[in-house]
Amino acid sequence: MFTVEHGEFVCIIDANGCGKTTTLKTVLGLMKPTADEIIRTDEKWSHISAVKNGRVYTMPNAPFAWCDRPPGVNRFLGVQWIANMLYPDRYDVDMVEEVKNFYSLLYWVDITDDDARELLGNSYPPYGKQ
After folding, report:
1. pLDDT in tens, 19-45
2. 126 preceded by cis ω (within 30°)?
3. What is the sign of the dihedral through the CA atoms of 109, 115, 117 and 122?
């Protein structure tokens, strides 16, 4: 945590992709940190083994949550996502391909591998498959 006094200037310098823009947007109130970001970075959660082992994930949610509300067809994909995340050795599927096929079949949209990876977010590749 740091404090910036009125009239002070602060400069954040680091490599591309390290989160400078996200940090600025969050500080300005333009972006709220997600639950998984808070859990991964807040010291209050640091003693939990999932946090220690880097196993905190955000369930995909586009165009609707994959296992939450509203109930819909995305739950079919959500069940596969959960099985692949929790049991990657027993349910060893290529979630990028599953997502692409699902969106093509049910939303009539052909997406790229990169689009599928973006939808999968921080859950791709699954733990143990990096």
Report:
1. 677 677 767 777 677 777 888 888 888
2. no
3. negative
Please state the pTM of the whole predicted model. Answer: 0.65
* Residues in contact with 62: Cβ distance below 8 Å, sequence separation at least 6, in sequence order: 119
Reading the block at residue 34, the tokens are 């997600």
Token pair for 16: 């591309």
User: Rounded CA gap, 25 and 20, in Å?
Assistant: 9
CA–CA separation, 11 and 21 (whole Å): 12
What's the one-letter identity of residue 52? K
β strands within 21-128, DSSP E: none
Judge contact between 93 and 80, C-beta under 8 A. Answer: yes
Cβ–Cβ under 8 Å, residues 59 and 65: yes
The helix or strand, by DSSP H or E, that contains position 35, with its residue range, turns out to be helix 35-41
Cα angle for residues 53, 69, 44 (degrees, 5° grid): 30
Question: Any idea which residue has 């946090």 for tokens?
Answer: 51
